[in-house]
Design a protein that fits this description.
With about 180 residues, the chain is mainly α. Helices cover about 70% and strands about 0% of the residues.
């Protein structure tokens, strides 16, 4: 059994923290928040003296904890931002300097907006794949779905993201969202 002994914990922390940070940062959008979310996940792991059959299972548990915490954080921050905007009618426009910086910022915002417009099941697999650096098998284990199902979701997510970025949108094609397994 893999437990949270000091040496095992240190090894797990060193190996998994970079992946967790990338996932948390992509979802939360803040380095400080991502670091806090990762630290909180490791604290929970250590505090509960979790035991797993092997280090890989511990890794997947931590990824799930960080993903869920980051999603909750992002939702809470979005609600707070909207409440402040309504309350204070704040204008968040900024003056950009340099054409390259402006183009880069606009592109990043367009991609982020398109990514956020995807259904959660598509957005999640893309974040884990592209920002978390996980392979299909690891994503499947993390989300509790088959590797084939992950591949289908990633393919469909990329299709939708491409269409959204092209300005076409996919409209109401909800019938095509079914996974191979039907979940």
């Amino acid at each position: 059994m893999f437990s949270s002994g000091e040496e095992a914990f240190r090894s797990l922390y060193t190996g998994v923290f970079p992946i967790l940070f990338r996932v948390a940062f992509r979802i939360a959008g803040s380095e400080e928040a991502a670091e806090d979310l990762c630290q909180e996940a490791f604290f929970r792991y250590h505090e509960k003296d979790m035991t797993f059959p092997n280090p890989e299972e511990a890794k997947y548990w931590l990824i799930r904890v960080v993903k869920n915490s980051a999603l909750n954080y992002a939702k809470r921050k979005d609600r707070e931002r909207k409440a402040y905007q309504r309350a204070f009618r704040e204008d968040y426009r900024t003056v950009e300097t340099g054409e390259a910086h402006l183009v880069k910022k606009e592109t990043r915002e367009e991609v982020e907006e398109a990514l956020n417009a995807l259904p959660e099941k598509f957005r999640t697999v893309l974040v884990l794949k592209e920002y978390g650096g996980l392979n299909y098998k690891e994503i499947g284990r993390t989300l509790g779905i088959s590797e084939g199902n992950v591949k289908v979701r990633v393919f469909r997510a990329r299709e939708r993201l491409t269409a959204l970025l092209a300005g076409k949108g996919l409209g109401e094609k909800e019938g095509n969202d079914n996974d191979v397994s039907g979940s």
